[in-house]
Amino acid sequence: MATPSEVVLEVRDLVKHFPLTQGILYKRQIGAIKAVDGISFDLHRGETLGIVGESGCGKSTLAKLLMALERPTSGKVLVGGKDIAAARGSELKHMRRNIQMVMQDPYTSLNPRMTVGDIVGEPYEIHSEVVPKGDRRKRVQELLEVVGLNPDHINRYPHQFSGGQRQRIGIARGLALQPEIIICDEPVSALDVSIQAQVMNLLDGLQKEFNLAYIFIAHDLSVVRHISDRVGVMYLGKMVELGKDTEIYDRPSHPYTQALLSAVPVPDPDGREQRERIILQGDPPSPANPPSGCRFRTRCWKAQDICAEQEPLLEIRDKAGDHPSACHFAEAADVVHVN
Amino acid sequence: MSEPTATQDLIQGTPEPSAAAVPNSSGKPRSLWYDTWDILKRRKIFWISFVMLIVFLVMAAFPTLFTHKDPEWATLARSMEGPSEDAWFGFDLQGRDVFARTIYGARTSIIVGVLATLGTVVLGGIAGVIAAYQGKWLDSLLSRVGEMFLGVPYVLGAVIILGSVAPVQSNPGKTMIMTVVIIVLAVLGWPVLMRIARSSIIQAKHQDYVQAARALGAGPFRIIFKHLLPNSLAPILVYSTITIGSYIGAEATLSLLGIGLRTPVISWGIAIADHTRYIRTGAHAMFFPAAFLSLCVLTFVMLGEAVRDALDPKLR
Amino acid sequence: MIEVLPESAGSGTHGGALLEVDDLHVEFRTRAGVAKAVNGVTYSVSAGETLAVLGESGSGKSVTAQTIMGILDMPPGKITGGEIRFRGTDLLKLPEDERRKVRGEGISMIFQDALSALNPVFPVGWQIAEMFRIHRGASRADAKKKAIELMDRVRIPAAKERVSDYPHQFSGGMRQRIMIAMAIALDPEVLIADEPTTALDVTVQAQIMELLAELQRDSNMGLILITHDLGVVADVADKIAVMYGGRIVENAPVHDLYRNPAHPYTKGLLESIPRVDLKGQELYAIKGMPPNLLDMPSGCAFHPRCPYRQETCTTDVPPLHTISGTRGSACHFWREVLDGDAQ
């Protein structure tokens, strides 16, 4: 359903360095955490771009940058052609109507002192021009119904709902302003297995109904595969591979993607003895002091001298199929299916 | 002690703990304040302090309900006379009825305690909100200024300010003395409240729902008044309740040192101060106001503790 | 090694099983009522075997483990029935000092959150060495040497240099290794791992699971793996006990369970998870929510969410029907579930 439609979000060379400072009144910079370090991609109307990576890879910072909750050090985030990262005041506020988010933790993302009606209706209080005052309650109830909640529960408080239901409340809030883009930051990872499927099906259904574009950030590769049309893999602030879901999952070409995929446990005991794992050694280096050249080289089994000297760019490479990969020695391989 | 949510939470350690433990279909809407009240009303300590508080408040508002004697009326002939059927608490140095003066003293002590606390909350609260919300250099500046105030020993600070504003030789009126004492207590006390307000607002500021509100385009006023303050009031409330008690004690300390309230004001602190020298000959003149003072301080402290326990989410 | 225990003091029916949990009942007394967290759980593990206990939050899987270890908070917890036999001896009847010896030497446990399970103010080496000082009366120098050996064994690089580091100086994966080192320090016969990799990244999870498997091979430990992750279970388990609402609803050898589940809950779970090797369309979603332990549904706890539900499910609690020698399902309609035709 994805390809040739209109681009709703363009990210260009996005960089976010968090300064490390010292000092009491006057803060002196002694270094920087390179959380996001030069990321570019497009998002089309109605498609889902999955972003996977492990903790510390910068995917949550990326979400905050896209939402303009953090200002980037450099780079652009173009929403409908305008740079949200440079927008201020009423212009920024207006742009926010088009890009909303669903957060990870359903227990902390809802204000415990507000009723469900106040939470889902807050977007209309802030953007009072969207829905006239008298119609708001009705709109909120409609939204609750859309996400599968009982509209009569409008006066309840978040703590009276289960995790899955709270996540639905968060989704209703994200939908209220009828955005084109929704950033989902680990929207199901805090939920029980049997509830995850409900929420993912809901997100799927809403996407079709409202033609939404999702950025779906998660650490769970199975979840990302299920929902995404395209997938980007992040490592230490860089995008190391980007492609259609089949390209990434069936023909990954970056060693990190391959290791990541092979590490995912498959819920099928048959043939587990034959399954080969690429077990990475050690932990990811600190983003405050990333390795030179390719950032993955310290844990990579293919690393050579060139990897330390020259940073591999995210580009289409001979042996890597027709999707870009940031590895000097990229070579497509099927690591998930052994047979 | 613990509600099922907390227990299950601890036991499971897996995501979505309360889904299984907490019924979501239960009847009427309940706010967190309602829950707090629900816990509070089961606490014995809360009811004891509550009843005592009512007694003290009625005493302060309508002293004539408790005594018909005039606290100012002095019969020098009965100076330091012990308790009797006629005067339950006896007479003080100037032959005034100790019971009447103790009852009337409640008003001053409670007014000073409550208003000084109010001042502290307003000063410290505003400073805390600004420091926490704005952050950066303003936060550093306010925090350092607060630490300077905290660094001054309480009594020394009070001696200096009171000594220069309302020297002992001058003869200010009742309201003037009380106002000055209230201001001194608030000025010296605000940094603690600022710290509490600041830290609880910083904590609330990093909550996801504040991020969500920002993502929706909410301005600073909405974020502060709708999201931050309602979620950081609890510790401020608890501290204030306890502070009322300690300010009543502090007022007495200042009076004892001769720099706080003084005649013609009637207060427990003054009564204690006036009779310390006669502790061997007529302890009653000091004992009764001191006992009332201790009870009143205890009341507010107990109330504060009860509220804190009820608001503490870990105990739920 | 367990010379403190009278050999086969119990019934002697433990035929091969090292640890047997038999009809265990645990309750929590709370302000809002009595929560029946564990309702007649029975499972066992033998040497060298891996039992996976699968369940969602509130299923009672962790409470059972804590009861085995004797670390359940009582109150509010209360054991209201059943036995936990280790080599035939009922642990619940042992006095605390003998129980303590079993803990660590006989059975030990690792937790999900390694950071909070380690004491932040002591070096990790000291904490590992403490096991030897307390249980074995080893000297300081000896204990430290053993601690370094153990850190090597759980593959902590440069163990010698890192033995005096504090927990916060290690990454999440390394901390989990340190906790594993402490757990295996006294060569336990049974290791209980409660969600050992839930807090970890997937590449680190793979490292830890590989380490556990290797340690188990080397020392022939019985391993009880408590988890909600169907993927991890499929990778390592020999047999599985699925828990729901404080009961075991299905137990089976791993291949049978994945190939042909005999309980609607297991079946629903398997169909509801997205898989990295398959691109599905709509996921099957088990409707509704896990049961409230304070207010359990009548009859079968799963009946409000069950596609196979019949009248009898709302009134009769299904016993754990034996399907074959090693398989059981607590569903009145397990035959239909196996055949796959929902009503």
UniProtKB/TrEMBL annotation, chain A:
Keywords: ATP-binding, Nucleotide-binding, Transport
Coiled-coil stretches noted in the UniProt entry, renumbered to this chain: none
Residue ranges of the TM segments: none
Keyword Transport: yes
A GO term, aspect molecular function: ATP binding
Annotated ranges, domain ABC transporter: 9-261
Lineage: superkingdom: Bacteria
Family the entry assigns: Belongs to the ABC transporter superfamily.
The protein's name: Dipeptide ABC transporter ATP-binding protein
From TrEMBL, chain B:
Compartments (UniProt record): Cell membrane
Transmembrane segments: 45-66, 110-133, 145-165, 177-197, 228-248, 285-304
Source taxon at top rank: Bacteria
Keywords per UniProt: Cell membrane, Membrane, Transmembrane, Transmembrane helix, Transport
Membrane disposition: Multi-pass membrane protein
Gene3D superfamilies assigned: MetI-like
Region feature Disordered, mapped onto this chain: 1-28
UniProt-listed PANTHER family: ABC TRANSPORTER PERMEASE PROTEIN, OLIGOPEPTIDE TRANSPORT SYSTEM PERMEASE PROTEIN APPC
Name of the featured protein: ABC transporter permease
Automatic annotation (TrEMBL), chain C:
Organism placement in taxonomy: Bacteria, Bacillati, Actinomycetota, Actinomycetes, Streptosporangiales
Source organism (scientific name): Microtetraspora glauca
Main location, first listed in the record: membrane
Descriptive protein name: ABC transporter ATP-binding protein
Family classification: Belongs to the ABC transporter superfamily.
Key words of the record: ATP-binding, Cell membrane, Membrane, Nucleotide-binding, Transport
Entry-linked Gene3D superfamilies: P-loop containing nucleotide triphosphate hydrolases
Domain ABC transporter: 19-270
Membrane topology: Peripheral membrane protein
Localization per record: Cell membrane
Keyword Zinc applies: no
One Pfam family matching this protein: oligo_HPY
An example molecular function term from Gene Ontology annotations: ATP binding
Protein origin, superkingdom: Bacteria
Position of the signal peptide: none
